[in-house]
Amino acid sequence: xxxxxxxxxxxxxxxxxxxxxxxxxxxxxxxxxxxxxxxxxxxxxxxxxxxxxxxxxxxxxxxxxxxxxxxxxxxxxxxxxxxxxxxxxxxxxxxxxxxxxxxxxxxxxxxxxxxxxxxxxxxxxxxxxxxxxxxxxxxxxxxxxxxxxxxxxxxxxxxxxxxxxxxxxxxxxxxxxxxxxxxxxxxxxxxxxxxxxxxxxxxxxxxxxxxxxxxxxxxxxxxxxxxxxxxxxxxxxxxxxxxxxxxxxxxxxxxxxx
Length: 258
Description:
Double Stranded RNA Binding Domain; single chain; about 35% strand; 4 helices; signal
């Protein structure tokens, strides 16, 4: 009888562990610096990891950026991405590990390898090789919500505020008609990497395409790429880089993933 009870307990534990798969998670959090790196986003690895995770179907965020309410209130709704390195002569060896909020390994990739001599190329090739095993893993988010570490916050009721007195409408004044820009289609998806005062927009190379500086206006950034200066603004749900070229206002449509 004791053996039967023990067998049942073991089977139940294994079954509970097996249920914790990548299909239980919609979000993945990525650090701005992996443990083996000497600087943030060294060799563009963190940006590349975010891009490859999103290609798999996850919604990915850098862990130093603003998170949606569903995730900010409960980090257990996300997996944490880690990349580990095994040091070896004349080779770069990287492994992707996805952990839950308790530190349990939910997915571990094969060891990605590269023998390229140039560091940037070698690290990028090794990471892509490691991600190939995640690419082969079936994934469909099943809608699971993790509540173990959910944070309950009790917010005080907002005090009643008296309605402001009626204000006479300001006189109507004529305003100049804004210039109509020539619109260019988006060239490809850009990935936003947070910096101290805004974002860097990076392509899949990875290469910094545009630097965005925050302003006091929501969805409005001062933008520059070395050769051109202008603004990046959100209009009707789409992002545009507006700048002047040969005295002509140009609006380049951007596909940005924050």
